[in-house]
Structure formats: C-alpha cells, structure tokens
Design goal:
- This protein has 395 residues and is of the alpha/beta class.
- The longest helix has 20 residues.
- The termini are far apart.
- This is Cyclopropane-fatty-acyl-phospholipid synthase.
- Keywords: Lipid metabolism, Methyltransferase, S-adenosyl-L-methionine, Transferase.
- GO terms for molecular function: methyltransferase activity.
C-alpha cells in the first residue's frame, strides 16, 4: 500500500520540481521530495486513512482530514496546487464508492420537489453561521477587486456596481434576481439606481433576514424576497440577473434555467448570469456534492452559451473573473479562522474541519485547477439600441 502511495508522491514531485514537501506515515516513515526543509508536510496518521486515499482519491482524503486522521503542516496551498496539477480528484475510485455516489446523485437531482431540500442543506445552517465570515453586504459570491488591497465590503459593492452597469440599469426598471441570497444586490440596485424588483431563494433564513434588511432601509415598497423556486416565478421584467445560482440548478437543468430567464425577460431585455464554470468538461467533485452543496453542478461555458442561444438569448459579453475568487475566498478564510473556535463550539470539530478544507479546495481550484468565474451578458433576441462599446462599464 505504501508503494502505491510513494508512486503518487513521486508524481506530485515531478509536477513541480521546485516544490519541497514531505509525507509522514503513521509509523514515522517519511518520504521527502526536493532539496532543503519541506514547505509543507502531509501527516497520514492511520493505515485506514491511506487506504481511503488510494481507494477513493479526494473523497477518501477529505473524509480522513475531517476525521482528524490526516493533518497538513505548512504551505497548504502548495500541497493542493500539486494535487490539482496531477488531477488527484479524477483518479479512479473504488466501485463501492462509485455506486454510492451514483445513488446520491439520483437522490439529489434538482427537481422542483427536491431542490428546496438541497438548498436548505447548506443555506439553512443559519444566518449566525454565515455572519462569521461574510461582510455586511451578506454577499456569498465572488467579489470584484479593483486592487488586491480592497476590503471585502468594497469589493462586494464593486461587484454589485459592475453587474448594474452590465445590465445597464435605469431608474424605474423592474428586475428579477434568481438566487438572490440575502438580497444584497437588490438592495444596492434599488438604492443606487432606483429600480424595483423581486428576488427568489429557497432558504427561509435568507428571506427572513433579507426582507428585514430591506425594511430597515425603507425599500419594502419597491423590492422584496420570496421563498420560491426560480421555476415558479412569474412576471415580465426589464432585466434579469443571477449571481451564483446557476451552479445550484444542477446537471440536466441548465436549459430549464435559461428557459425561465427567457420567459421572464421582455423582448430586448438584458440579463446577466454570474457563475462558476469550467472551460472543458470536468467531473463534479463527489466530496463537495456530499458534504457542501448536494445537487450542485459546475457547468461548462460552451454548454451555457449553447443553452442560451437555443432560447434566443443573444450573447453580448463574456468576462472571466477567475482571479477575483481566490481574493474573495482569502477574506472569507481569514474571518472563518478568526471564528474557528466558535464554529467548533456550535457545529463540532468535524464540521469545522470540513468547512476549512472547503475554503482551501475552492481557493486553489481557481488558482491552479479547472474552475473559472464567468459573467455572461445577453439580450432577449436582437437589440439594436444597445451601446456599441463597453465604455459604460468604466465611466
């Protein structure tokens, strides 16, 4: 078993000859790669943990880390960079785990009946949990940084402004926000651009807190959040936005999502979808689907474009904000670590380690892996009155 592990270690070393790392086994046997002191040491504390890693690759690794059977000392980013380079998450998995994951996938398909349960699994952890790492805008999606020194709150408001400009919002327009979270974007758009609108989410805590924040600002006559599946929203809107929702639509439902946007938009109306996506097809991470976002699916950009085009949504602009997400996650990680003991006290050590690992995996997947962050702007049908340039984005 160790021989197989050492072959994998050698593969990681070959992926970056400048890397210095060590792997220490439960019996103090240690393998070092590179000259000099290791930048990071992976400690595999039990034979079972190694067996899980070899049988079920990242899922086995992650569950062993959650259980405390694996520890990482030093430069965590380097270890995950090497893992992304060799595509550790896509290595063959045991047939037993494959069967279990297939059953999980079928159980969590995002039908109208099931999608609420999937959303509540994560977002109903409670507003108190998300307050531990989000800023006052309560935005839980990639921010937009003018400089790396921007505060998280600055960057989130800059994201809202960037989206508003891409949508070319005008006072008095009526907009829909699919997957509105706590309503931060609608609040910003109403206060800054004078729009009215409705947002939909499947999380009761989000609706409760979001509508309370709306009322505190005196905006309740213009904007509101509703506890509703996006497929159940009706109406006619000048603009439609969706920030960080498409990933939750689920595999097989990208077309359904685009059809709903097309139904909601007035002819010539403008929409924007802000989503994590990949350049090329890549397997969804079974660990993330099991522990963090059941029913989720990271789509491929070309598939998104294809499904939009099939519904007469005419593409106007696509922007890749990949490097903005690691900056965003870095802020969340810092806040999370400051409140780590509180997380352990409320939710337990295993959950706390799970979420810590989720931050690391997410951040490095944008830096070194296949994840991208695309903002795609489109109109319903051809609109010949739209600006000829992007000057309105940077005025």
């Amino acid at each position: 078993m160790k021989d197989a592990a050492k072959q994998l270690i050698a593969k990681m070393g070959a992926a970056d000859p400048s890397a210095r790392f060590a792997v220490r086994f439960w019996d103090d046997d240690e393998v070092r790669v590179g000259d000099g002191e290791p930048q990071v040491t992976l400690r595999i504390k039990t034979r079972e943990a190694l067996s899980r890693c070899l049988a079920d690759n990242f899922l086995g690794f992650a569950e062993s880390y959650m259980n405390g059977d694996i520890e990482i000392d030093g430069d965590v980013d380097l270890l995950f960079k090497l893992g992304h380079i060799i595509d550790f998450g896509t290595l063959p998995m045991s047939w037993k785990e494959k069967a279990r994951l297939a059953a999980t996938y079928l159980l969590h398909r995002n039908t109208v009946q099931r999608s609420g349960k999937n959303a509540r699994f994560h977002y109903n952890l409670g507003n108190d949990f998300f307050e531990l790492f989000l800023d006052e805008t309560f935005a839980y999606t990639c921010a937009y940084f003018h400089t790396p020194e921007d505060t998280l709150e600055q960057a989130q408001k800059q994201k809202f402004e960037h989206v508003c400009r891409k949508l070319m919002l005008k006072q008095g327009e009526h907009i829909a926000d699919l997957g509105c979270g706590w309503g931060g974007f609608l609040i910003y758009a109403a206060e800054t651009y004078g729009i009215s609108g409705v947002g939909v989410t499947l999380s009761e805590p989000q609706v409760e807190l979001g509508n309370r924040r709306i009322a505190e600002r005196g905006l309740q006559d213009r904007i509101r959040l509703e506890l509703k599946d996006y497929r159940e929203l009706e109406g006619s809107f000048d603009k439609v936005g969706s920030i960080g929702m498409l990933e939750h639509a689920g595999e097989g439902y990208i077309g359904t999502f685009m059809s709903k946007i097309s139904d909601l938009l007035k002819p010539g109306g403008v929409g924007l979808v802000h989503t994590i996506a990949n350049d090329t097809p890549f397997p969804d991470d079974p660990w993330t689907m099991k522990y963090v976002f059941p029913g989720s699916h990271v789509p491929v950009l070309s598939h998104i474009i294809q499904e939009m085009s099939a519904r007469r949504l005419s593409i106007l602009d696509v922007e890749n904000l990949r490097m903005h997400y690691p900056l965003t996650i870095k802020h969340w990680m810092e806040r999370y670590e400051q409140n780590y003991d509180t997380v352990v006290e409320r939710y337990g050590e295993r959950f706390a380690r799970m979420y810590r690992l989720y931050w690391i995996v997410s951040k490095t997947s944008f830096e070194y892996g296949g994840n991208r962050l695309f903002q795609t702007v489109f109109s319903k049908g051809l609109n010949n009155d739209l600006p000829l340039t992007r000057d309105h984005l940077y005025r």
